[in-house]
Design brief:
Elements lengths: L2 H10 L1 H22 L1 E2 L5 E2 L2 H11 L8 H12 L2 H18 L1
Helix pairs in contact: 1-5
Length: 99
C-alpha cells in the first residue's frame, strides 16, 4: 500500500475517529462531574484523593502504570480499532481492484 493510499484511508475515517474521541471525552466528563461536589455557583470541588490519584497517573509513564490502569487505557483504544481496521481493509480492497 502506498503512502498516498494510507493517507486517503486515514482521512476517510477522521470524522468517525473524532466522534469516538468525543464519546470518550463525554464519558470522562460525566464521571468527573459525578465525582465532584457541585457548588452553588456551578463549580465543582474534587476530592484530594482523586486529585492525588490523577496527578500520580499523569506523571507516570504508560509502562509504569498498574495492569488495571493499562487495561483501562487499552479499553479506550479498542474503541478506535474497528474504524481503523475498516479503513485499512477498504484501502487494501481498492488497491487490489486497481492492480
Amino acid at each position: 500500500m502506498e503512502e498516498q493510499q494510507i493517507e486517503a484511508a486515514l482521512n476517510s475515517v477522521l470524522e468517525r475517529l473524532a466522534a469516538i474521541e468525543h464519546e470518550r471525552w463525554s464519558h470522562w466528563q460525566k464521571y468527573l462531574h459525578k465525582s465532584g461536589l457541585r457548588q452553588s455557583d456551578g463549580s465543582l470541588i474534587i476530592s484530594s484523593e482523586l486529585i492525588e490519584r490523577w496527578e500520580r497517573q499523569i506523571s507516570t509513564a504508560y509502562a509504569e502504570l498498574s495492569e488495571a490502569e493499562k487495561d483501562s487505557d487499552r479499553d479506550q483504544v479498542r474503541k478506535y480499532l474497528p474504524v481503523i481496521k475498516k479503513a485499512l481493509l477498504t484501502a487494501l480492497a481498492a488497491q487490489t481492484t486497481s492492480s
